[in-house]
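Researcher: Sequence recovery benchmark, item below. Answer with residues only.
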């Protein structure tokens, strides 16, 4: 069932609609036409109580700033690009810089700060599709990029996010969703006691400014290893240089079984307290695991104030700065080619 309501108004006075995607069990997701943002995701715990498991804001005021990127659709390119520049087809592309000398999540005023057009509502699929045209040169990226994001909420309590697009010039396309999850419910405190598995034998080490060193390294024998389930907090304070650089986990993982165009399971998280389990499926080669290390005094939903490590992100992607590192998976989208990427967050219960 898809319904809509007015979420809030922009400072200019324009209305912002919220789309409510509810399945037969009463679980639901809510998404905004502003930023194509995911603002609520309510799924049942072991007692049948619906819990909102994503961090966010009650009004547009928070999303207009949203320095933490709560629920954000990130585009054209997720994560960091070194120096805000790269070479493409023999020409240097210079991007807007918004994290020191680097470009983060595509720069200031990214896709998460734009009004999107409601392209299609499917009550049959319990989905809504947003679209926009990113103009040639937006934040420095070449090409007019026609892009869409579809949110579908299934009867199996799975949120499916599909990104599609084409560009009239060769460009970069590496889109992701930046939702922060807390399987105890948003506003319940830290996620350090929640369990996580990541199907990855290697991760991407970084410099102090979080730009990759240009190679992937084995997780074996390091605190970065999540191949066997452990709590997020077990090793987060370990005396390990990579964790010191980023204040805790904030690293790319190169996941197992990648084949272009094929969706497979890459991670699983769960809460002992609520019994909620979240499985992550994607056709992307990598995922950024971020433990919310830099969230501080964020006034969120329901009067809650979010702090450090009150949510975690699993952002599907190619490696950060991949456009500058030939050894990494390429984010380059050729002129006229079709971009397609999908990620599924499926919720269940462990009794």
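Model:
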């Amino acid at each position: 069932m898809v319904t809509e309501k007015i979420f809030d108004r922009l400072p200019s006075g324009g209305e912002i609609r919220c789309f409510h995607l509810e399945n037969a069990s009463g679980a639901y997701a809510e998404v905004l036409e502003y930023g194509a943002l995911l603002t609520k995701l309510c799924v049942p715990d072991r007692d049948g109580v619906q819990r909102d498991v994503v961090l966010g804001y009650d009004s547009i005021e928070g999303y207009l700033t949203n320095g933490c990127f709560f629920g954000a659709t990130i585009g054209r390119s997720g994560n960091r690009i070194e120096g805000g520049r790269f070479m493409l087809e023999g020409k240097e592309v210079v991007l807007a810089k918004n994290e020191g000398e680097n470009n983060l999540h595509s720069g200031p005023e990214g896709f998460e700060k734009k009004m999107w057009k409601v392209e299609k509502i499917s009550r049959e699929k319990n989905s809504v599709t947003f679209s926009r045209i990113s103009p040639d040169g937006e934040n420095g990226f070449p090409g007019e990029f026609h892009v869409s994001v579809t949110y579908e909420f299934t009867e199996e309590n799975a949120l499916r996010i599909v990104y599609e697009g084409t560009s009239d010039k060769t460009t970069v396309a590496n889109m992701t969703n930046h939702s922060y999850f807390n399987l105890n419910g948003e506003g319940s405190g830290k996620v350090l006691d929640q369990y996580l598995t990541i199907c990855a034998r290697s991760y991407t080490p970084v410099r102090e400014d979080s730009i990759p060193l240009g190679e992937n390294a084995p997780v074996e024998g390091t605190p970065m290893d999540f191949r066997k389930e452990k709590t997020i907090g077990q090793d987060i304070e370990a005396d390990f240089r990579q964790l010191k650089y980023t204040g805790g986990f904030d690293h790319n993982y190169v996941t197992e079984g990648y084949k272009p165009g094929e969706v497979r399971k890459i991670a699983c998280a769960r809460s002992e307290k609520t019994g909620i389990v979240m499985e992550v499926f994607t056709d992307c080669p990598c995922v950024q695991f971020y433990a919310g290390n830099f969230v501080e005094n964020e006034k969120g939903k329901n009067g809650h104030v979010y702090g450090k490590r009150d949510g975690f992100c699993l952002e599907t992607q190619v490696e950060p700065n991949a456009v500058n590192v030939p050894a990494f998976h390429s984010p380059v989208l050729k002129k006229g080619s079709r971009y397609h990427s999908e990620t599924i967050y499926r919720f269940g219960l462990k009794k």
